[in-house]
Design brief:
The chain has helices at about 5-20, 40-60, 60-70, 80-85, 90-110, 125-145, 150-155, 165-175, 175-180, 215-225, 240-245, 265; strands at about 190-195, 200-205, 210-215, 235-240. By secondary structure, the protein is α+β, with helices and mostly antiparallel strands. A hairpin with a 2-residue loop joins strand 1 and strand 2. Helix 2 (about 40-60) packs across helix 3 and helix 2 runs antiparallel to helix 6 (about 125-145). It is globular.
Length: about 270
């Protein structure tokens, strides 16, 4: 996909979440979300922090490497600490997040064609970076929307959109990364992934692959962002490697997340 197209979808995903959180009162920003220890404010602070770091990676790689060295002392808590440090009053936090989104868009547009920039995982092109930001914005927006199950705006935010194609794509591209993050060897051959999105079927990988994952695109995206346990999803895995992947799926860089418990255990 072209950078302009991905940036348009990133803007749309961000603006949808912006509309949701800008309608919350200050007390609601302090409400705990499904991510343990994170309030709504933590979620937006994390998105702002990640946009800021991504801007640095694309505009000033040396500055990014200096920032990266800060995470090496305690990589397991670095993200949580950064989110907590970024919490601020809602108006201030919203202004920071909006400005950071605009700065990142401009930084991505300035990267020369064909070049990649560093990240916490493999280096990424501007298109890949923008796709990753869609994935994160969707995942953290999902946490926020699920915090307000009785709010019609939140329920509307939870409805799947065509932008899930981006999240599914990065989920497919990071299948090997999921195994590596859990200290396991990557599968020897690519998977076939077939996902339903309304009346469409979104596919990735060779049709003849012996390892296959099929089901709703929403469930696939919830899995790769670790927003649901595999037991709570209507995904079907065929082949030993595909079945094993359901337990290690991870579309984001860094160490494995804590993962969510099956909902049956939390009721």
């Amino acid at each position: 996909m072209q950078l302009d197209e991905v940036l348009r979808d990133l803007a749309a995903e961000s603006e949808a979440l912006d509309r949701l959180v800008s309608g919350l009162d200050p007390q609601q920003w302090s409400r705990p979300t499904p991510a343990p220890g994170w309030s709504v404010a933590h979620q937006i602070a994390h998105l702002h922090w990640t946009d800021e770091v991504a801007t640095l990676a694309n505009a000033d790689p040396d500055g990014f490497y200096a920032r990266l060295s800060e995470s090496l002392d305690d990589p397991l808590t670095y993200v949580d600490r950064a989110a907590a440090a970024g919490v601020a009053p809602p108006d201030e936090l919203l202004a920071r997040w909006r400005a950071g989104r605009a700065a990142l868009t401009e930084a991505l547009r300035q990267v020369p064609p064909g070049e990649q920039r560093p990240w916490f995982g493999p280096a990424m092109s501007p298109v890949s970076c923008a796709t990753a930001r869609i994935m994160e914005t969707w995942a953290h927006g999902r946490d926020i929307a699920e915090t307000f199950p009785d709010d019609e705006r939140a329920r509307e935010h939870l409805r799947p959109t065509e932008r899930l194609r981006h999240v599914a794509f990065i989920g497919f591209r990071t299948i090997g990364h999921g195994f590596a993050s859990h200290g396991q060897p990557a599968p020897p051959a690519p998977f076939r992934v077939e996902l339903s999105l309304g009346d469409d079927v979104v596919t990735f990988g060779p049709e003849a692959s012996g390892d296959r994952v099929t089901g709703p695109i929403l469930d696939f995206c919830l899995l790769v962002t670790q927003r649901r346990h595999p037991a709570d999803l209507a995904l079907q895995a065929t082949g030993d490697h595909a079945a094993a992947w359901l337990g290690v799926a991870q579309a984001f860089a860094g160490p494995p997340g804590a993962k969510r418990e099956p909902r049956a255990r939390t009721r």
